[in-house]
Amino acid sequence: MAASRRDDLHSAYWSTLRADNPKAAITLEGANSQSDVEFHVYGVRIAERILGRMERMAPRPFAWSSIIDIGCGVGRFALPMACRFQHVYAVDISADIIEQAKAHCRSAPNISYHVNDGETLKDFPGASIDYAFCGGVLQHIKYFDVIASYFREALRVLRDGGLFAATFQVWQTEDVGSGRLGAKVTAKKLNAALADEPYAIRFLQIDPQDPVPHCFVILEKTARADARDFAAFPVDKGPFRTGVFEDLASCAAMALKWKETPRPVTFFDAG
């Protein structure tokens, strides 16, 4: 990747990074970013919801396995993953935020830290990792080809039968994002971008109560030819973020937002 593009991706995502409180660039909830305990609890609850779904279809016990956390930030998910997995590879575009992750996750000796180029996982060999995860990151990437690259790279580094879990927002309308608002992701775009990749969709969820709709998807690395159409795959409409933060005082503003009318889901648009 050209240095200018890497700088563009870096500045777009971490433009709100503050040296005194990097969590404010992640949660975007001012009160939650100020509360170390509640910031941690919210992250653990989301991680457990994702890992619980993955574990039901896991080909290999987590305790014997490795996972790569793409866009790890301060380690909000890497830390609870370290309690479940044999090893966690924490990857981020920002060297500064990796240092913050080391501090946040200092109690976990089974995490290694890696600065990447913001688009690939080229430092990791193919078929070398059991599971892959990318949460709360893709919705901030302004170029769809970079989002697609992370899907392809996750599948590349996975061993056969491995699972890739990703979350991203599905209400955007612009093909190129702006600032921290990412590019529009649609089923049609993902179908085209992954046409030559070895995968099957195992799970796809969109929480209808979320006023900022997110998609939670799990892909399996496999040569099987079934379940490859994101537009046709059955959508689970159960809770994703609903029910993980409402009791946290630092998330009061988010709880109020939950009463708003959800934004229209654009994931199934024709374009």
**Which stretches are poorly predicted, pLDDT < 50 over at least 5 residues?**
none
> What are the secondary-structure elements, in order, as H or E?
HHHEHEHEEHEHEEH
Give average pLDDT, whole number. Answer: 90
Helix content: 25-40%
**Count the strands?**
7
In terms of structural class, how would the helical and strand content be classed?
alpha/beta
Number of domains: 1
Query: Given this structure, which CATH class is correct?
Result: Alpha Beta
Report Rg. 17 Å
Helical element count?
8
Q: CATH fold name, please?
A: Rossmann fold
- What does the largest sheet look like? 7 strands, mixed
| The named CATH superfamily | Vaccinia Virus protein VP39
Shape: globular
Q: Order of strands across the biggest sheet? A: 3-2-1-4-5-7-6
Q: Beta fraction of the residues?
A: 15-25%
Q: N-to-C terminal Cα separation, in Å?
A: 26 Å
CATH architecture: 3-Layer(aba) Sandwich
Commentary on this structure:
There is one protein chain. By secondary structure, this protein is α/β, with parallel strands linked by helices. It has one domain (3-257): Vaccinia Virus protein VP39 (Rossmann fold), CATH 3.40.50. It has eight helices and seven strands, in the order αααβαβαββαβαββα. It has helices at residues 3-14, 30-34, 36-56, 78-82, 95-104, 144-157, 187-193, 252-257; strands at 66-70, 87-92, 111-115, 129-134, 158-169, 199-206, 214-221. A seven-stranded mixed sheet has the order 3-2-1-4-5-7-6. Strand 1, helix 4 (78-82) and strand 2 form a beta-alpha-beta unit. The mean pLDDT is 90.
